[in-house]
Amino acid sequence: MSTRPTATKFVEAEKWYFAVDCAKCGEAIAFAEAPSPQDDPTPKHATIRVRCPSCRKEHTYAAALISRRQGPEKE
User: What is the CA radius of gyration of the chain?
Assistant: First the structure.
């Protein structure tokens, strides 16, 4: 299980994203760009519905399950 967002086509190295962990397979799913912790230390969230790019299951996630994570490290 990865704590960094899944590499979808819009995830860029070291950028910040809002993400959830898939309720079925546990993969981190990035679904939107997020401000850095320095720019906005306490972002607000709403309940969302997203499909996991790994297992293809769609789930609804409460705001409490959404976190801000950084994209993969540059190689």
Answer: 12
Reported as a single tens digit per residue, the pLDDT across 5-33 is 555 567 888 899 999 999 999 999 998 89
Q: How far apart are CA 73 and CA 56, in angstroms?
A: 25
Contacts of 16 (CB under 8 A, 6+ apart): 33, 34, 35, 36, 37, 68, 69, 70, 71
Cβ count near 5 (within 10 Å): 25
Q: Is the pTM of this model over 0.90?
A: no
CA separation for the pair 62, 48 (Å, rounded): 7
Domain boundaries, the chain: 16-70
Cα-based angle 54, 59, 65 (whole degrees, multiple of 5): 95
Could you tell me how many helices (H) and strands (E) the chain has, helices first? 0, 5
